[in-house]
Structure formats: structure tokens, C-alpha cells
Amino acid sequence: MSESHLNRRGFIKGMGATTAGIILSSCAVSGDRSAQGLTEEALAVTPVVRPQDLEKPNITVGYVPVNDCAPFAIAWKKGFFRKYGLNVTLNREASWATSRDGLIFGRLDASPVVSGAVTNARIGAEGARHAPLCAAMTIHRHGNAMTMNKEMWDYGIRPWYEYQQKYAEGALEAFGRDFRGYFDQQPPEKKIWAVVLSSAIYEYFARYLSAAAGVDPLKEFRVIIVPPPQMVTNMRIGAMQAYMVAEPWNTRAITGNEGIGFTFAQGKEIWHGHPDRLLGVMESFIINYPKTYRSLVKAMIEACQYCSRPENRQQIAELLTERAFTGAKPKKSGVPITKFTAPGIIGNYNYGGFDGQDRTIKADDTTIFYDLPNTIPREIGEHSTFLWRSRSLWLMTQAARWGQIKAIPKNAEQVAAKGWRTDLYREIATEMGIQCPTNDYKVEPPEAFIDKKGFDPSDPVGYLHSFDIRANAPARFFMS
């Protein structure tokens, strides 16, 4: 046996002993960096639901180290879990794939999942294990962005809003020229876009943007999967030219921070009002533990309401910097601790750039946890955590558009109803005195999308076929 093997085995054994010691201690953070124990604030909360009245009061809930773990961090820190009789073990997940798969294989009772993960598990889309996943509520809308590297900046590509300012209605055409021009000069190994999960909304946004600009993403570049905390490092070493991820991993890339890229667009500029993260559970959890499920949803709704209030945003941004959550703290002294987390939470969002200009834009819809800002049209009773089943249909159109399923399921509405539990959400919210829309489906207006193409859920097949760029699109032949 080699010395290196012995050293490696000794290291692993030592790490195991160290981790066990940490778990058995009273530290607030475990060896895997997950938040543990109860804070003083949580201990001061008087439960309104007795743990003994729940079928399963002790549950394990996952989260991923990005800004949108804020409601989970708040529910733990402020005692919303405890209020509803839950003893929650928070488990920090390495990626969005492990967050999803932890549910499917029973390691987790609940966990956030990227929009698309539930729908595509239901329909068995490419890259998604077939499983009866369910979405309990929307955790947040927006809060993500697209980062492009310095080479793309040097070629002449600029943030999307600048194309709009300069070219108005011709913005997409102008961006398309620059986008194609850049990739036409690159070898295959430098035509790569990274996203956090296959068959999910971030991949769809990357492809949607490219296709809207007239560049076929199925032919022009590859899409790879990279966990959020690894995005910046992989761009630095040239593993990809662009990526889409939740904050703070876009802000980390810009000049003044890591200086390797700039934000091209926030996800809200692709689809304004889109759902980002959903609270995922298995269907069996709802069936076997209905009271526990209701307590979980109530705790998370209250946590999202707390995160939504402007007066709480600063402390949330500070909480997210803790090692148990994003761990995104500046290395330099004298820099605000929330330098990386605040832009996406508070809304002073800096797109960056390499020309010395300040591209900080203040907006109240950078990340939406509950209350909808006036910039987003809403139905009566609508709030951010409400689930629109019509959006599950939109995700199916994109799975079909990019060849991840052969066609939109004929029973698409039934699939949406089984996966997106709007019915239960409405019941639970009503118990909390929260009004909800009476419908499960809504039309997404043209102005919500970057290409001004609205979505009518009554005709998903027609919507799919309205796109010229898509997988299995009819070939066009011209004869002279």
C-alpha cells in the first residue's frame, strides 16, 4: 500500500473524528457548515402548534448557499419553525442537483428546488429523474442574473439595459449581432454557458435569450452544469464564457470584487415576475404527514413575509454572510460585510463593467419574497409565494422546445395540478388570513418577456410552435 494512500486514509479518518466531535458539541455550525441548534430568538418563541400534535415534528430541510436561502435562515433564526411545532435540522446542500435528489431519495423532507425541477421530475424530462415531486409554494421571484466574462466585454457586449437605451426596439437585433460575432470567433471549447441545473429555468433562460437574439443555442454553444459557489472560480480558469446563477455569485464576479466578468442581465429582464425557487417535497410527505406539511408551509410563508419587509433587508444580508449560509464575506478589512449579499437583497444592484462607470441601479424587485412591487402587474390577492400552475405549463413548453421531452404532455394540466399544489397552498394561506387569487392559471403578458412574446396557458402547443428556433423545428429549404 502506497504512502499517499495511507496518508489519504489517515486524513479521512481524522476528518471523520473531527466532524463527529463538532456534531456532538454545542457549536451553532456543524462540520458540514449547516446551521444547527436553536438561537436565543427561536427559544423565546412560544409555539402555537405542539410538536406532539404533528405526525413528524423532527424534519430535515435542505438549502443551497445562495441569497435565496434567506427564508430558511430566517425561519431557523427567528423561530418560525419552532412556532409551528417543528424541530428542523437545516442541511446545507452542495448543489441544486443534491437539493432535488435529497428529496427524491429520502435524505431530505423538504428543500428548495429550481423552477423546472418539480415539473420535469413529473414528466421525466432529460436530466431529471422521474419522481412524484411537489411544489408547496414559491420561495422567491427574481434574485438571479447572467454573468459574462471580460472577453465578451472587450468584444463590445454590454449590459442588456444599455442595449435598450441605445437601440430601443432594435435592442435584441443589436445584441444578436454582437453575441453571434463573439461566438463566431471562438473555438468550440470556448463556446460554453454554465447553469446550476439541467432541465430548469436557468438553462431555459440562457437558451431563451440566445434564441430571442437569433442565435440557435442548440448549435452555437454548449450548456454545462456547475454548482453556484464554483461559478466564479470556473470562469476565472476559462471553463465557460458566461453563466447564470443566483446572487451573490454574480456580484462576486464584477470589477471591484473578483474582476472577471460583468452582469449582462438579471433574470427579471428575461421574464419579469418569474418564479425562481420553489419549496419542494415528495408527494408521500404530503400524504403521510399532512399536519407537518401545513406547519412547514406556514412557517415558510411567515419567513418570506419577514424577508419581504424593507426594514429587515439589511439584517438578512448580514445573516447570509455567515459561514453556515453563503459565507460570502469580503476578505479586505474596512469593507461592508454585506458587500456581496446586499445588492441582491436590498436592491442596489451593480452590473459592473471595465470602463470605470458606475452601473448601480436601485430597484425594489431585485429579489421578491412576498409583497409584489408596483412594477409587476398582479391579480387580486396575488403575492409572491402563491403558485400559478400556468407557470408549470410554461416550463413544459421549454422542456419540449429544447428537446428534453418529445412533446408537451396531453395531460399537461393534470401534471401541473399534481406537482404544483396550489390547492393546498390556498387552504393553508386562508387559515393564516391570507387572500389568494381564485384561479390557478393566468396569462403572462407580452411586456413581461424580453422578446415581447406573451404566454397563454390555454394554448401551450401553439405557443411552442410560435418559436422558429427550437428542437425538431421543421427544416426550411430554398431553391434558386
Automatic annotation (TrEMBL):
Keyword tRNA-binding in the entry? The reply is no
Q: Where in the cell is it found?
A: Cell inner membrane
Q: Which family does it belong to?
A: Belongs to the CmpA/NrtA family.
Name of the molecule in the record: ABC transporter substrate-binding protein
List keywords of the entry alphabetically.
Answer: Cell inner membrane, Cell membrane, Ion transport, Membrane, Transport
Reading the lineage from the top rank, the first entry is: Bacteria
Species lineage: Bacteria, Bacillati, Cyanobacteriota, Cyanophyceae, Nostocales
Organism field: Dolichospermum circinale CS-537/01
Decide whether keyword Membrane is in the record: yes
Give the matching Pfam families: NMT1_2
PROSITE patterns with a match to the protein in the record: TAT
Q: Which N-terminal stretch is annotated as signal sequence?
A: none
Quote the InterPro entries the UniProt record gives: NrtA/CpmA_ABC-bd_dom (IPR044527), TAT_signal (IPR006311)
Return the Gene3D superfamilies for the record. Periplasmic binding protein-like II
